Amino acid sequence: MPLYLTYPSWIHPEIIPGFFPRWYGLMYIIAFAITYWLFNWQVKKSGQVVVKDTVANFFFAGLAGLIIGARLFATLLYDRSGIYWSQPWLIFWPFSPDGKFTGFVGMSYHGALLGIGVGMAIYARYKKINFLNWGDMLAVSFPLGYTFGRLGNFINGELWGRVTTVPWGMIFPHATPVPVSEPWVKSVMQQTGVTDVIHTSLGDMVNLPRHPSQLYEAMGEGILLWLILWFIVRPRIPFRGFAIGVYLIGYGLVRFILEYFRTPDQGLDFPIMFDPVRDTSQIHIYLLNFTTGQILCAIEVVVGILFLIIFSKLDKRQKAQEKAREVSKKSRSR
User: Fold this and answer.
1) For the segment 127-167, what is each residue's pLDDT rounded down to a tens digit?
2) Over the range 222-256, which residues count as b (16 or more CB within 10 Å of their CB) and which as e?
3) Which one, of 129, 141, 109, 130, lies nearest residue 234 by Cα?
4) Contact 4, 175 (CB under 8 A)
5) Residue 204's CB: how many other CB atoms inside 10 A?
6) Rounded Cα–Cα distance for residues 28 and 146 (Å)
7) What is the sign of the dihedral through the CA atoms of 110, 112, 115 and 120?
8) pTM for this predicted structure
9) Angle between helices 23-46 and 131-139 (to 10 degrees)
């Protein structure tokens, strides 16, 4: 009996096979709608008087920043072909070389996060909105929407994990096959019961089961983080900006751990290596070798900690100033 799962054959990237609209794009629309609804609910519950369309424009400013930041990071940092450095106009060109509309293929979470922050901060400053207050409401809403983004990755059959022998390991149809001649590959085949060999000019290859890391991330970075932020952090925010810092720390830590189960980005592998790779297998996890995603997550955690320190001090300073003004006001009234 095979000890692995096969990627469902009935799942297709297109909503209607053969037509352009894709589940991935729909998942992002759902993510945007959920985040918007949760955020808007908090604004109304807080009793804030908001000019019509202000919340919508705040989100669209973030969406513009998301697209710019996500594309810049994905094309200039993660892509190793160099084509976007030599032809930068292709970064925001949503067509394939043959003129077919493809949309923006390739988005980076960390670039999107930075873009959202910049876009919304600029709009908040323009409209004289307290960005930390609105940022907290966004931070506790965002992870639930993010869940659907990772489901979109799963439906696309992309961002698969490392080779595994766990019973829920899944064979993704577009995953990179590995040579059957490798001893570790034969061992995995024996343990999992994989027998489908691909005959190529380079020799016999096989597609092995991999961690469904997209689903791990949907659960960890999405649902789990949202539950913590929404039900534990949101009711107990001690100062403005607190939820922003907790979100950055929480996401960074969860993603850092789950990166160990993802296949490193092609061409990037491990930019930081303290544990020399002793073999070429894709199944071993080297705890002291860090991917680009882990490096960015570590930076995100540090930024989150700094934000908590800075925002806490700003809150104490503001309260001290308000107290001083009250004392001054009472002394003058006497």
Assistant:
1) 999 999 999 999 999 999 889 989 999 998 988 999 999 99
2) beebbebbbeebbeebebbbbbbbbbbbbbbbbbb
3) 141
4) no
5) 13
6) 8
7) negative
8) 0.91
9) 130
